[in-house]
DNA sequence: CAGCATCCGCCACGATACTG
DNA sequence: CAGTATCGTGGCGGATGCTG
C-alpha cells in the first residue's frame, strides 16, 4: 500500500510474496510500535499517545485507522463527556503478535552485532586521511 | 536508519524497542525481497536483478550495500572478465531467515482476511450516493 | 557484467492550529 | 479527550546515462 503496486508477474514479486504482504501492513514508522502498545489489552487513545514516545496525534490516528481498516484493531467508543475511546487488537491482530515478538527477540539478541558490523564497515571504508584524525 | 532517531527516552521508544531495531534493518521497499533471493545460497548480481521483479540496479546495489554494512550479507568478487559478483547471507544473516519466514507464513495465511476487512471497511465508509452506483 | 552519477517527482511524516 | 485540517519538507525511490 505504501508503494505503487505496478509490478508484473515473476517468481519474487511484490504482489505474490508473503513478505511483501506483511510489509504492506507493518512497514512504516509507527505501526509496530502502536501494535506493541496494545499487546496487553485495551488501551485508550491518550494513553497510547504517552506510551509511544514521539508520535504525534496525527500519526497515531492515521496508524490506528489503517490498522482498523486492515481488521487488526478494534475501536470502542465510550459515550462519556468528554468522550473516550479504547483500542484493542482483534483476534486477527493477536495472531500477528507471535511472529512480531520473534522479530523483536531477534533484534534484542542480534542488534549489537549489527552495530559492530556497521562500525567495522565504516572504519574499513574510511579514507586513511580521516583515520589519522582518530 | 530510514528515519531520524531523535527520540527521547520512554517505555516504548524507537531507540530501545526490539521491533524498531529490526525495522531499522528491514523496513524498506526491497530489503526483505533481496534477503529472500539469497535464502537458498549464493546468487549473482544479475540473477538477483532478474529474480526480484521490478527492482532497479540502483536500488539493488543500494540495498545489498546496506545489508553488507549491517553484516548480514557477504560479497564475493570473482576476478573474471567481465567480472562477476556473488552474494550470500552471513551466519548472522541466516539467523534472520527464521523469523522472516514466520512473518511470510503469517502473510500467506492471513492476508486474504486483511483484504476482506479492507473491503468491508471501505464499503461501510462509502457514501450512500456512491453505493447506489454499484 | 556490475556497478556509479545525477536529476527529480512524490508522499510519509512533522508541526501547528482548530473543533465537538 | 480525541480527534480533524492544512501546510511544508526530507529523502526514498524511479529513470536515464556513463564506466572499468
TrEMBL record, chains A, B:
GO terms for molecular function: DNA binding. Keywords: DNA-binding, Transcription, Transcription regulation. InterPro entries: HTH_HxlR, WH-like_DNA-bd_sf, WH_DNA-bd_sf. It comes from the Bacteria. Transmembrane segments: none annotated. Residues 17-115 form the HTH hxlR-type domain. Pfam families: HxlR (PF01638). This is Helix-turn-helix transcriptional regulator. SUPFAM superfamilies: Winged helix' DNA-binding domain.
